[in-house]
Amino acid sequence: MRFRNWKSNSKKTYQQENIYGHMKKLLLLTIAIWYLTAGCYSQTDWKSFMSRQDMTWTRLPQTWYEAPFMGNGSMGSYICKEPGKNAIRVDVGNSMVHDHRTDDASIYGRGRLLIGYFLLHPVGEIKSGDLRLDLWNAETTGCIRTTRGEIKLRACVTSESPYILVEAEATAGEKEFTWKFYPENTDSPRQLNAIRKGNKNHLKKDYVSNPAPQLSARNGLSLCWQPLLAGGGTATAWKEIRKENTSTLIVSNAHSFPGTEALQKAETALASLQEADLPVLRKAHREWWHNYYPQSFVSLPDKKMENFYWAQMYKLASATRTGGGLLDNSGPWQVLTPWPNAWWNLNVQLSYWSVYPSNRLELGMPLVDAIGNNLDNLINNVPEPYRKDAAALPVATDFTLTGATVNVPGTEKKAQVGNLTWICHNLWLQYRFSMDESILRNTLYPTLRRAVNFYLPFLTEDKSGKLHLKRTYSPEYGTAEDCNYDIALLRWGCNTLLEASRILSVDDELIPRWKQVAEHLTDYPQDENGMMIGKDVPFSRSHRHYSHLLMFYPLYLLNAEQNGSKELMEKSVEHWHSLPGNILGYTYTGASSLYAAFGEGDKALEKLNGLFARTLRPNTMYMESGPVIETPLSGAQCIHDMLLQSWGGKIRVFPAVPSQWKDVQFKDLRTEGAFLVSAVRKGGKTSFIRIKSLAGEPCILRTDMANPVVKAGNATLTLQKEGEYLLDLKKGESVILTAAGGNIPVISPVGGEGENYFGLK
Description:
The protein contains 18 helices and 34 strands. The chain is an alpha+beta fold. Among the domains are: 2-40; 48-294, Beta-galactosidase, Chain A, domain 5, CATH 2.70.98.50; 664-739, Golgi alpha-mannosidase II (Immunoglobulin-like), CATH 2.60.40.1180. A ten-stranded mixed beta sheet has the order 11-12-13-14-9-8-7-6-1-34, with helices on one face. It is globular.
């Protein structure tokens, strides 16, 4: 406004006009630079783009691992035809529903529990149907065709409220269809699964069943109360709004312990809800998802892989939210399984990895909160003589981290000591990608300190001054001295505690001990086949786990910048995959990320394709003896590892992109040091990089871009060595780099053939 008034002043001088002209040009230039660095270089029609990622069914699924699934971080549901019945199933799940037996801390007494399901009973016989999982709106739509007509469905698990909504519209012949709720048996899913399969090894002989469900109705609502022997229980409430040929089923679920307040909570959630409120619920639900997806953007020329990637981003937010449950093995879609809990020797770790680079850090906070809020239980997981200074995680726990006592190293028993240290690595990533010092100070440091302390009494020194670790357990391979699983984690743990104490200015009395361990801990046991399980224990048995290879990935203690590490990694991975038997899901994703860590993009893609070829289900779920969600979620991390890495204080753009991916674009992926990175690769060459610093951390970039130049932003680009540059970015500043003579492109979906690969065709 001032400029306009000044320019219109009849008494202005030529000099004033000249000054104004220069100021105007400067202002426009400043605006242009801001506009470019603020993200206008991105152009995505998100609704259209996400529709290409939808899962579609031209025939009806008949099990959870084929079906469209939905969730809001706690409640979940899937829709399928009920096998052997003329009915459509809508499952009711809630990841917060656990048993709480105080006399049994195992997965039998503290495990996840089933709830129940609704069946839509049509008038006629089901002949066919089609479904679509609309990722953009997080809704399932479809049509069920019977001998009497059609029933159109639309369903969601509302993001901003605790409801499952199912809308049904029937033609005249089907308007008398009905809904009925069938409560599940609330005994341990591991126990029920063992009974079903006749697995005596998993059958707990002295198991006592929980009481039977109680069905009732009041105040226009139907209720199911599933009490527990230990106290508390699970409440499901529902009501149907019926009008002529339309029906809206509204379901709420709650869990409480030790009291019964879940009944009131579930009932209250529905009591005041009217038909007029539903459009508001749907609008809030859709808005949440519409705000969620654009936090980052990835587009690949391989459209099947692109579909898979976005299905995992959808799955993440369906399975966990701030204030909700952990990412355990099942998410909110619990079924009969031997693994009805959080598994800490790999599964939880893998599930969270894609949260960090995808710039969806809020989804990592339930893990931070679970560790931070349950330190006392972590302490109680170690034998009483060590509780003063130590803590540990057993292989499986409930969400309070209560589980069986971890055995002492040096015994013949499985001393699986490393799980807590490994999950602390996830906390470290949450800190490094956010640079939120409160995570480091309040949660990571005190937890990692105790995790490392559990190792220290069991170290012995040889004549050369090397420190050795007594017998511990490497998942799932066996017990060994100098176990590589624990040697890698202990080395990383001591180095991280030293770094954390420096950042936090903590003068810890244990610093000298951590330095000693870091400097004198024994080397990793290895033989002609690469990494061993531990001293005198070769890798000789096939299994999915890569617990003996953590020093390569995700810890990067041995990495691509060290002579000989790549050859050792390749030899170890090849031997791991050469043994037949248990080469399954995350065997492929683990190998993919291992190769990506060393810049081998083609091999990384080859291994990831192994997941698709052998074990991935039609809806991108994964099943062995039961559901596990970590395997496909870790597949999304494989893609991140090909596109962007940031270990060792350096940002690596397209470090392992497969040669067949000539055109790749991504926007606002996140790195350690809290940088947002966007990049374009066209015709097999990197042509554009944008980096925004959110924390003012040192910025070192590695890129294959030929002769990069600063196109926008005030940062100075300083060559360190071939392909490596220093950028002097302050907090809040951005820089755009292009190849010499290049223009700033518009980031948008890349070309490629095909879409909607998943579902049932």
